[in-house]
Amino acid sequence: MLIDELFNCVEKNGHVCVGLDTCAEYVPVLERQKAGNDADAVLAFNKALIDATYDVCACYKLQIAYYEEMGLSGLHAYSDTLKYIRTKNCLAIADIKRGDIADTAVRYAKGHFSGDFEADFVTLSPYMGMDSVEPWLNEAHASGKGAFVLMRTSNRGMRDFQYLNVNDCSKKVYNMVGDNMAYLAAQNCGKSGYGMFGVVVGCTERDEAAEIRKNYPNLFFLIPGYGAQGGGAHDAVLLLRNGNGGVVNASRSIITAWRNADGAKEADLNFASTEARRAVIKMRDEIKEVL
After folding, report:
1. Neighbouring C-alpha atoms within 13 Å toward the C-beta of 169
2. Which residues of the chain fall short of a pLDDT of 50?
């Protein structure tokens, strides 16, 4: 089960999930000028970042919107990045946030668990109901893949819906998502004790973190909000369990770290990827120190 592989990657390389949410503007100017087009520049940048970080991170996450923006050439870059990650024997999360039902969900699942866009995990939105998640579960059983379902996110608007009380009781909408996913996880646990489907829980609300972790011990967490969104190591570790049970995502603070370094104006791929590696190691060590 891939969730066990992810657990082992955390044990070996630390908790950092490198977010390859890569737009052309993040690529050093000199390298962007050399490339034939923006998609080629992004792909070359991604490969350099992967080469520099694959041994110090747990996994990678690709937000597909950054690639869709560039059209067909961007989707080729997305596909080629996923394939390149596999050559390093690393795991990839496709941040696609799909949330449809029935046969549409099945088609999405087949499209992202196999073929040109094959990833190891995907992100899903459950707000059409559990019948938007179940088709993915069936395909995951067949392919050995996994998913992270949006539970309590890290964006400003999360309180618009996720925090609404359910039936005038103390539970909130995000608790109902967690309860349903915990039930599924109990039916599909790996050797690590975590279900093949985890949840997305942002690290920007420290006051609730310990309770969420306590309430959902069998759910592996994808933890956004670190770095550019304001979360830090002290926030993230509250969502871990016995030093594992989650990966902590950071994107801009890693892939644009080169912009804040001396010599940024003359930056090439080697310079930029070296700075990214430093950022990953710094983040990894900050989390370990707090643990």
Report:
1. 7
2. none
